[in-house]
Amino acid sequence: MPPGSKVRSRKRRATDRGPDRLSALPDKALQRVLSFLPSREAVRTCMLASRWRHVWKSVQALRVTNVDNYRSASHLNKFINSFLLLREPLPLLEVEIGSHTDGEDDDDEPLQYMELWIRCGLSSDAGALRVFNNYMGARWILRDGLITSKNLKVLELYYVEVDSLLIDFSSCPALKDLRMKLCYFKAFMIMSPSVKHLSITCSEFEIRSRISAPNLIFLQLADCRGRIPLLENMPMLTSAFVKLQTDLDDCYNNYETGDCGSCEGCCDSNIGSNTSVLLEALSGCTNLELTSLASKFIFRKDLTLCPVFSKLKTLLLSEWCVTANHCALICFLQHSPVLEKLTLQFPEILEDLVGTGASYGTLKEPFSLEHLTVEVKCQNADDKRICKILELLDFYGVPSEQIKIQQPPKIIELEEFDEYYDNKRPSLSFSFEQQMTSQNVDEATSSDSWDSNDEATSSDSSDSTD
């Protein structure tokens, strides 16, 4: 068949498939569609037809996170640098950048341009910035003052060392969603006047940092090492999920409130007798989940200060609340006057605590829990301590038909990088309730960075070229 016949045959086949309605869309619509693709795939659309040749240059998002698609750190760095150089000078509404996993012969190469890319994104009015350091050879060091933007609403940092004694996001007045995972902190203060959703997971605190976020409504603090951070007043907070996995603030002798006087965990905790680390700041929550191993004493020590949970309606606790005579649990229930649902989630084996006669401020006046719904999630309902808890609930008036005993939920694992053993290992999991709430937060913030641009997009679409 002559060459011209082959070309005509291909054109006929393309025509037989019907009109190309996607290419008929205005530029603004195509750019919005491409903005949801990885940037490499968006650039490749220039090969589809002449109509698509320059569309990618006006896409208002940079997404480079699937680093396995790049041969090396040099290959990935070259792509991002070229993308930023060749695109049109338009705002970048979302920036998602990840370093390569392989340093080859140059350990600095995977992280060489990270600061430059961040500066470029923030100077282009990015509303969302997500930075993923995938190179496990070293944490990327975030310099003081780098994250400064009046437009930034969402910030996510992965495997980053924050090199500052004061982490102040006041220079990001629009910041609403802040997430940090596998990060390292040595700051005495982490503060943001504007942030509403804060998640810190699988990270390490060198000292007992203070967290100041007066407008926070959602908190997730889980699986962190080092010292447990101290939460300052959070009057707007409605939901919090705190899971203690720290290697410090842990009584090695299992003393009830961390006052054995001999182990490193107790002696170095440096908590004053009238200082609340967590619970005072969490006392205004409506939904609360507090889980830890029995040896972690911070929750029990905070309870001795008798905070009142005046708005609390749903509560999930783990084995840390099982103390001698169940005073810690009774105190929590007495100081939660509107509590509607209690979930107790226990492991297969419960550790015994050394009772120290801690004063939890339990009230002498009688009180009733007849309105309370209880779920007990445990492997062995015949354990004598579980039986005593059920007797306690019965004593305080919880009807038997309002108590359900179930198997623990199927766990949802988080991955935590262990730099000492140079591998990945699963951490203990969150409950189903927490995971669902976290997903709701994700959905609420996923499109936040585009909201301010929607009106402009709709008004400009009529001006697009064919």
From TrEMBL:
CDD domains: F-box_AtFBL13-like. Pfam families: F-box. Residues 432-450 have a biased composition (Polar residues). This is F-box domain-containing protein. Residues 1-22, 432-466 are annotated as: Disordered. Residues 19-65 form the F-box domain. Gene3D superfamilies: 1.20.1280.50, Ribonuclease Inhibitor. Residues 455-466 have a biased composition (Low complexity). PROSITE patterns: FBOX (PS50181).
